[in-house]
Amino acid sequence: MSTDLSRRGFLGTTAAVAVLGLANETRAEEAAGGGAAKTVKIVGVSCSPRKGKTTAQAVQICLAAAKEVSPSIEVELVDLGGMKMDPPPQGQEDEFQKILAVLSDAKVGGIIVGSPVYYSNMSALCKVFLERCGPLRKGFALSNKVGGVVAVAGARNGGQEQTIRSIQATLMAHEMLLVGDGRPASHQGATLVNTKDDVSGDEFGVGTAKGLGRRVAEVALRMAGVK
Question: What is the domain range of residue 55?
Answer without folding.
Answer: 7-224
